[in-house]
Amino acid sequence: MNGTMAASSNRIMLGPLVAAIDQGTSSTRFLVFNAKTAELLSHHQVEIKQSFPKEGWVEEDPKEILQSVYECMDRTCEKLTQLNIDISNIKAIGVTNQRETTLVWDKETGEPLYNAIVWLDLRTQSTVERLINKTPGRNKNHLKHKTGLPISTYFSAVKLRWLMDNVEKVHEAVLSHRAMFGTVDSWLIWCLTGGKKGGVHCTDVTNASRTMLFNIHTMDWDPELCKYFDIPMEILPKVRSSSEIYGLMKISSNLKSGPLTGVPISGCLGDQSAALVGQMCFKDGQAKNTYGTGCFLLKNVGTKPVMSDHGLLTTIAYKLGRDKPACYALEGSVAIAGAVVRWLKDNLGIIQTSTELEELAADVGTSYGCYFVPAFSGLYAPYWEPSARGIICGLTQFTNRSHLAFAALEAVCFQTREILDAMNQDSGIHLSQLQVDGGMTSNRLLMQLQADILCIPVVKPSMPETTALGAAMAAGAAEGVSVWSLNPEDLTEVTSEKFEPQINPEESELRYARWKKAVQRAMNWETTEPVNNGNAGQK
């Protein structure tokens, strides 16, 4: 909506608005939607610094995360005022967040006791190996019947265990009953509802289902799982549905976003669940793939959990109200998608901006036999192989940076194909097209490549912010807010663009077979066992 149109439109005509805080791995956004039309009215985005203190470690500063939320709210409120839109029309706020990222803070001082350990972090690899070794038959799926998840570095419980074992401040705070644990949603909701002065310590079922401490059948924290990881239940947030009033915003009146004080926070979904809701995948069998830092394919499987035989996770899709049933999803998780672009930019310096990647790749139109497996954090679905590491192979004297750029985009598509194949095998029903969203979908070459590699059409909504939209929908539909209807007949028709496959399936299969060969080369690289290479005496 351009400024002149907005300024001249009658304020009252807009009706109720709903906002969403979208706190992702690489950036934070605050977005405001019209609850009746789902139109995005205004937003603001701030990048988040990631720090890598040691190899395989990934951290973010909890205070920077919180500050970025305030900054996004302030800037968006300024923009709304410029558009002559009344901020007091915002009736609810939803929160959506990077999942699994783990924080511990002191409930008396409100201070974080360590940096947030990001989901991608690998410092817990030895903890994970130790846990798997003590299971019967060294089985990484030992807890899957309760959690839907393999024992992996990815989930929060092992990160929390590491913090309690290795950070003195955390250990002390747990002993003196001052520690609070939470994923990013819990930290934000606690801070935004008052913090140490009466902040609400809660999470929703979707975020809780990514901790390895939550039983996806009983829909609550599981005492046996907590005992298994030796985590005291008193530090855990209260688990709530994804759509209910958790508490009211408390914001300093001298901030531009001060008028948001008193607005209910009434929606909470992990980012991938939020995208499923934002893509309106409410029916059993509907699926979406989100291209963010990682890549996440989720398929709604209805009100009964389905366990995968092909390396997918079983997770909570959403529970849209206290008395509503929970819906489950099968999930294929890929750790590195958009992060490979950041790596080519920040680590190798072969591009300055992400749009440049598309131009470079388009220049050559092929990877010329070069394959790039970006297993920077090991391999997630369908392999769950923490010892894998990144590899670039098939290099010749002919290979240049354009081929590498193309191979990086192909890597995202091949990884998606692997999880789509697993999903098709698990359900026996093949997806006829793929609904996509997320930052990387603005890359048209990537979308075309994806259709070519999957051999099915790729469908992209024209409003790419589906994650934030999902959180706004959950918030606006909550009991006591009720400004957004989720009845199928009331949902707005989404305009989208379709990318049809353009290469022959044989060529696609050939490239995919090569990719699988490259993946095998990346396996079993970083093992903690000493390697006997025949000259053990030499250092």
Describe this structure in words.
With 539 residues, the protein is of the alpha+beta class. Helices cover 32% and strands 21% of the residues. The chain contains 16 helices and 23 strands. The protein has helices at residues 3-8, 62-82, 125-133, 144-147, 156-166, 168-175, 184-192, 205-208, 223-228, 271-278, 338-346, 354-364, 401-427, 444-454, 466-476, 505-522, and strands at residues 17-23, 27-34, 40-47, 59-60, 90-97, 102-106, 116-117, 179-183, 202-204, 214-215, 220-221, 238-240, 243-248, 264-270, 287-291, 295-302, 313-318, 327-334, 371-373, 391-393, 434-437, 458-461, 496-499. Strands 17-18-16-15-21-22-23 form a seven-stranded mixed sheet. A six-stranded mixed sheet has the order 3-2-1-5-14-13, sandwiched between helices. A two-stranded antiparallel ribbon has the order 4-7. Helix 10 (271-278) packs across helix 15 (466-476). The longest helix is centred in the last third of the chain and has 27 residues, at 401-427. It is globular. The N and C termini lie far apart (66 Å).
